[in-house]
């Protein structure tokens, strides 16, 4: 479809684009392509070039996922990567406008250190940082932090909520105009505008103030990507942008309405919460060429390795899955899954609805890992983006190139110009901060009106 | 003195220089000078320029101290600063050779996260990172991390030792040649060369492996700066470079011999432990001009604020110190001081030996905070550096300019050429890594000879 004449959802607004950058691409087997640098995941210049490409395409932001654990089998795919806030910092000083989002865990960080690090990157980037708040599933991660197993899903979200409270209090512990820098009087800050936060909660006790003045954006843009019940309620309360995996337009629209309504019920303007479904675009000059690229990637997946990964996700022995049969009829319920609950259900539903064999399911997941893969021409990719945007399923998209850098290059060079021509996407940056790009307000300081509770002696 | 003809300690070797960069300078009142930018502490470009100046001067490294707490009174001096590993990353991509050292606390970090972050900066800098290991004193810091008070000094050091064990195990969890990147076979790493560490200790349980391959230097250069008994024993075992405060040549020589001997008794080659006393050089065209600059800085110190800071350090009420009298006869013993023990004793000894009034002591500390301030011409600064180096009190110096950037500019432009002319300091970098600059070996991998204990499934 092309641009419509009658007003619909999305009219009068433009969409937002985030580039999800997974070293050599979102596809499990991308590193095996002739074009891929198998050392790219530890090469900062690779990430900087990707960020510069996204900036050339006027993307709102780039995003690095993360977990404090070695994910998957390093024998089978690039293992580990540079720590995301380190990547963002290196990118920040080599770009001007692009927003910079990184995942960091509320289960395996201290709020004081995390608040300080993100505020530091906000200063370095002059207001371009975002924080994807995750609770981190998995016993493997837990065992890197003195625990035997991952804490309960609900408990992790309760801790995450308190973590965000502490972090935002710390970001409010300095008023914006606290620094007066009066050399003659020898007064650097107005000490009445620098406060201890005195937080005493269930999970954290933190005195403050932060050892850093209030940063350009005050808070990083708060991002969230869990779509379980706990995840959606958390997002409705705290998130300003949500990354989500949605396979169909119907599911996308339903999720969009649900989350916006949850935000409204909590007294928020739903427009202060931007929803970005993932799309894994595989772009060819023709549809046939795109499908061939997709098929080439499929062939590079090791089915035995992928079968093991899938069985682990389901909490089943590997023998329970047969490559050329459908999923077993008896599967755990979402309640029994401790991590990535909604992704689990999405995968099961996808397999059941399309009656996929395990081998077929693996192929679908290898490309998208639950996100929607779309193979086609640039025009077709632009069409589906426009369709979802106008149908009220998305405020924008989390673009997850299957192969990097080529997949991002193609998107920027071929899809972005079409979206711009249709008036759906910016042709130049009009703002300088990530909050600006997403049309989000700079947070007020909760303490600014209070009686001083100064730290000064 | 000038260069000697007869062999002595230091002959045949050249010295090492580290630049200790405290925003606008090491002096408490530096920000009040007309030349100082009072916002420099939150301006990344300021730090990058300083690093580039140090690199122009062929320094081995730059160093950023840190504590996860707002130090001092933000009303009286610039409060807080950018997180040091963020600063190092921004500097790394805008310099080529200079080493990059940051403080991070073993009491208020998780080993997994810290090991990953420093390894990431080592990749980004291509082998130039160093870690100053601190245990972090002070109840204020403890109260940002859920504790009521700082843990006992000895306990902090025991935890620090185990922390370093865990971190170095994680840095060994990948062998250097683990990545094979065989695209045809679909084998990214030799999974036998990626190991869980399975650490179970008194303070930490960490499974590993690290989510990052072994970095260019394998380990950051391990730096330490505590000079208490616990601190010296820790340094003798783990440190590769030591920053220390020494007021007199006799004290410096004695400390140097003591620490090298402790290292030798632990079976180490003492030359693998570099000792760098601090020096706060105040450089003038003439000695008189240098002393005037020093006096100008003294005048800008607020005596009442400094008196309070000193009383806090001594654990005394402020009334116990009178500005124009010497220190009280009765003072706590070092055993009763929970943080910065050796610095406490140094300050007391300095005041007693020179019979300083509190006001005079404050002036001395405001410039050096316990480190040795030396005001003179560039030639005189070079002389004292050479004297200490040849006398066996130093392998190099921790240069702590009182005012930045001017103090570093002067040192680089005036003192470094003299040291180079005397054959005491490099005229060009000959190495590319921080280990290379300091003449330190790249650590062997403790697991490389072991039977595989692979993580791969």
From TrEMBL, chains A, B:
Domain Luciferase-like: 37-393
Entry keywords, A to Z: Flavoprotein, FMN, Monooxygenase, Oxidoreductase
A family per Pfam: Bac_luciferase
Keyword Flavoprotein included in the entry's annotation: yes
Protein family per UniProt: Belongs to the NtaA/SnaA/DszA monooxygenase family.
Residue intervals passing through the bilayer: none
Domain of life, source organism: Bacteria
Name of this protein: Monooxygenase
Single GO MF annotation: monooxygenase activity
Binding-site residues for FMN, renumbered to this chain: 66, 103, 153, 157, 227-228
Organism encoding this protein: Nocardia jinanensis
InterPro entries reported for this sequence: Diverse_substr_monoxygenases, Luciferase-like_dom, Luciferase-like_sf, NTA_MOA
Cross-referenced SUPFAM superfamilies: Bacterial luciferase-like
CDD domains reported in the protein's UniProt record: Nitrilotriacetate_monoxgenase
């Amino acid at each position: 479809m092309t641009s419509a004449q009658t007003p619909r959802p999305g009219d009068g607004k433009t969409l937002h684009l985030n580039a999800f950058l997974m070293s050599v691409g979102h596809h499990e087997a991308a590193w095996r392509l002739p074009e891929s640098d198998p050392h790219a995941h530890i090469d900062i210049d690779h990430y900087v070039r990707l960020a510069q490409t996204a900036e050339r395409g006027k993307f709102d932001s780039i995003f690095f996922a993360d977990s404090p654990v070695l994910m998957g089998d390093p024998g089978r795919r690039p293992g580990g990567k540079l720590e995301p806030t380190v990547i963002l910092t290196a990118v920040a000083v080599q770009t001007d406008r692009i927003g910079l989002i990184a995942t960091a865990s509320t289960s395996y960080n201290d709020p004081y250190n995390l608040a300080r690090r993100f505020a530091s990157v906000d200063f370095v980037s002059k207001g371009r940082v975002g924080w994807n708040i995750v609770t981190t599933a998995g016993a493997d991660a837990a065992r890197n932090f003195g625990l035997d197993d991952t804490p309960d899903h609900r408990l992790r979200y309760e801790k995450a909520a308190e973590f965000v409270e502490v972090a935002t209090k710390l970001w409010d512990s300095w008023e914006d105009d606290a620094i007066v820098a009066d050399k003659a009087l020898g007064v650097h800050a107005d000490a009445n505008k620098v406060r201890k936060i005195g937080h005493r909660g269930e999970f954290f006790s933190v005195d403050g103030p932060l050892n850093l003045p209030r940063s350009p954006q005050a808070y990083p843009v708060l991002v969230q990507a869990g779509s379980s019940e706990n995840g959606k309620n958390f997002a409705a309360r705290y998130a300003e942008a949500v990354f989500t995996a949605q396979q169909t337009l119907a599911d996308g629209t339903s999720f969009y309405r649900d989350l916006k309504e949850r935000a409204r019920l909590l007294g928020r303007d739903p427009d202060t919460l931007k929803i970005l479904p993932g799309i894994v675009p595989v772009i060819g000059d023709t549809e046939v060429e795109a499908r061939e690229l997709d098929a080439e990637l499929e062939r590079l997946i090791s089915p035995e390795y992928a079968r093991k990964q899938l069985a682990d996700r389901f909490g089943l022995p590997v023998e329970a899955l047969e490559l050329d049969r459908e999923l077993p009829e008896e599967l755990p319920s979402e309640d029994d899954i401790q991590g990535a609950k909604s992704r689990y259900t999405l995968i099961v539903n996808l397999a059941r609805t399309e009656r996929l064999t395990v081998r077929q399911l693996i192929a679908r997941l290898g490309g998208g890992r639950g996100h929607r893969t779309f193979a086609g021409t640039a025009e077709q990719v632009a069409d589906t983006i426009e369709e979802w945007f106008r149908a009220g399923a998305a405020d924008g998209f989390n673009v997850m190139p299957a192969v990097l850098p080529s997949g991002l290059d193609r998107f920027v060079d071929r899809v972005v110009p079409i979206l711009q021509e249709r008036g759906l996407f910016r042709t130049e940056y009009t703002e300088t901060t990530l909050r600006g790009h997403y049309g989000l307000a700079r947070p007020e300081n909760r303490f600014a009106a209070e009686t001083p509770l100064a730290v000064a002696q």
